Amino acid sequence: MAVTPGMENFAITGSVTTSLHSTSRLGHVVQELLDPSRTDQKSFVGLAFKLEAGKFGQLTYFRIYQGRLGRGSTIVNSRTWKRTRVQRLVRMHANRMEDIEEAYAGDICATFGLECASGDTFLSDASRKLALENIYVPKPVVSMAMKPKSKKDADNFLKALNRFCKEDPTFHREYNVEAKEVIVSGMGELQLEVYAQRMKAEYNCEVELGKPKVAFRETLTEKCAFDYWHRKQTGGHGQYGRVIGVCEPLPANQNLDLVFVDECIGTNVPKQFMPAIDKGFREACQKGPLIGAPVTGIRFRLKDGAHHIVDSSEIAFILAAKFAMNDVFSDGRWHILEPVMKIEATCPTEFQGSVMAALNKRQAVIISTDLIENFFSVICEAPLNCMFGFITELRSLTEGKGEYSMEYSRYAPLRPEIAEQLINESSRAQSEVSNRTSKLHIHMTDRGGFHGGFGSNAFADATAAFAETGGGFDPGVGFAEAGFASSGGFADSSGGGFRGGGFGFSRGGGSGGFGRSAFYGSGRGGRGGRGRGSRGRGRGGRGGARGKEGAKEWVPVTKLGRLVKDGKIKTLEEIYLHSLPIKEFEIIDFLLGEQLKDDVLKIMPVQKQTRAGQRTRFKAFVAIGDYNGHVGLGVKCSKEVATAIRGAIIAAKLSVIPVRRGYWGNKIGKPHTVPCKVTGKCGSVLVRLIPAPKGTGIVSAPVPKKLLQMAGIDDCYTCAKGSTGTLGNFAKATYAAIAATYSYLTPDLWKGAALTRSPYQAFAEFLKSNPLSVAQEKD
């Protein structure tokens, strides 16, 4: 190429004038002449663009963009800020190395001994905090399970994975905890197969590749609003955060992005909590609602919210954003995205029809075709999920003369029939995992206490019957969990005598040990009453089953019970209005049903010295309530933990009281707190309940908090005096304070109840027509 007068000017002065105009010929001359300046007056800046494992260790390739790099120079990695001394500098000629003393801007060189990753920037001046733009590396689109064929090759397998991940930024690996396997990801099936072959050739490690998995994504199809209020109060510094906004889909060209937008006006949500909300939003998007794939292509617009001056924190707003996204997952309309690849295939013209048919079968969309001499070339787009195994088919169709290349193009919506198939497969996989987990849990919990003791938290666990598990992990005696239901019956499992002769209580004997039926079951047998099972102490089978089958149907024995069961009395308030005594706990079960929940507050051993020796009893405190204006407290002492808890539950049901609730403010609102200041006392403990504004939560110790929650009170301040360490008196004092709320009647909030005839008078004819025997009558 001849040099024009403009080029002569550049050679002399080092600048290119406008005389280049059209002589640059599509930019070729400009690209060749405008090299970086080779001055050493500026500090060194270089990019590590390639890593290679050689016989002398890791070889790092540099492209120097500014300054000079000499042997013995000290350079800094701008990502890790770790200093490294360049011991050896080489220029590469294919696989041959040439040692050099220095290199300048524009040179490509290599060195050994650098700990870095591909794309790291190196500097000689650490005060310059800069990083060069790296090459764009798309996210992996294909995943496979990979494992060594022999366990002895595990070390070489890990070494190879670490090396390949360093050298190739498109190659990723992760460990799937549920499947317990290594998942490798890359840009195509062929890439992963090449790495599998390299492991065998370079590390003598043969590996097995599983079925390829496509990196699907999930996205929203239309706007979905959210309003989540996160409140949690534990007695001290609690959690409070509210987020209000809308999630909406992004345009198709941004369907891999996640965008958070703060549109709040004012200080309802302080700005320091915005990063926490963004973090919670992105963490929630790691697993979508349809198949568990990452969620992309949505914009999270925060429009309003609320905070508390004391209880609001970053973790509170992270959780609020997460739970808000869970609401969007359940309320929004979602679909699945799949990667679409751009494919260029070439083959002799005689195979053109076969190749086109194979591409059409794989849902390919033809973009262009071309004929060059005797070869046919086609460019198309096809879903990656349909392209697995295409290279084998192409070689078979073209007698080994065809070839193709594939690169990532974009993400597009998945076809409905394929999406439905993926959702069904994901549901089946999750159910299998949950089944395995539940079986493991049953296996661990049914074996009993740890090494023959009383369980992991004997005398301390307030949520189990006596200990977390029961009956001797190996030989020993413990107590079964017995997990009491709200109706007062015993749990179906945890039969006694499993592997060591422990005693458990089950719903009628289960498959072994000595069991007791839930209510009135008795006798000797398998599923009825007592039974000696095959897994108890090795005493034969399940027995003759002479006991009664399960729990009896409730047969009322009081006038009130008859009226309740026959539907004459439909609410507890009718009973409270006339102060009718409740002598059957089944009345509470019948009227409140599944709404009723119970919780064991404490189980404590009580010892007494008698002439027969030291006697041990167990005292149980149980709270019960429906979280909507009814609460009860029961105490029972018995020789057995299970009997004590069952008796405490029955006592709590018989002591259920109504709760009067109020509101905070000068306008009538939804009741959420106590109506006024009330006080309860038991022993030395005095508890005072104080109304609180909405959103405050329950500010109290754990025991009063549990009772207040079961009573349906959301916000309340408390003040306690005395020996609050005595849990029984603490709970009784709180219960007394709650009961005091019903002593107040405010005409402007609650209408006075008109006095009517007692139910015994109103339904006297019904009671006469269905008389009770003298033995049954309790009233």
Strand content: 25-35%
Unreliable stretches covering 5 or more consecutive residues: 1-34, 440-550, 773-779
Spatial arrangement of strands, main beta sheet: 5-4-10-1-2-9-6-7
Summing up helix and strand content along with how strands pair, one would put the structural category as: alpha+beta
Please tell me the total number of domains.
Answer: 5
Question: Which term fits the overall shape?
Answer: elongated
CATH class identity of the largest domain? Alpha Beta
Percent of residues in helices = 10-25%
Largest sheet: 8 strands, antiparallel
Description:
The structure is a single chain. With 779 residues, this protein is α+β, with helices and mostly antiparallel strands. It folds into five domains: 10-18 and 25-132, Translation factors (Elongation Factor Tu (Ef-tu), domain 3, Beta Barrel); 142-215, Alpha-Beta Plaits; 218-332, 2-Layer Sandwich (Ribosomal Protein S5, domain 2); 337-416, Alpha-Beta Plaits (2-Layer Sandwich), CATH 3.30.70.240; 569-749, Ribosomal Protein S5, domain 2. The chain has 17 helices and 32 strands. An eight-stranded antiparallel sheet has the order 5-4-10-1-2-9-6-7. Strands 11, 12, 13, 14 and 15 form a five-stranded antiparallel sheet that branches. Strands 16, 21, 22, 23 and 24 form a five-stranded antiparallel sheet that branches. α5 packs across α6 and α12 (585-592) crosses α13. The termini are far apart. Residues 1-34, 440-550 and 773-779 have low confidence and may be disordered. One of its GO terms (biological process) is mitochondrial translational elongation.
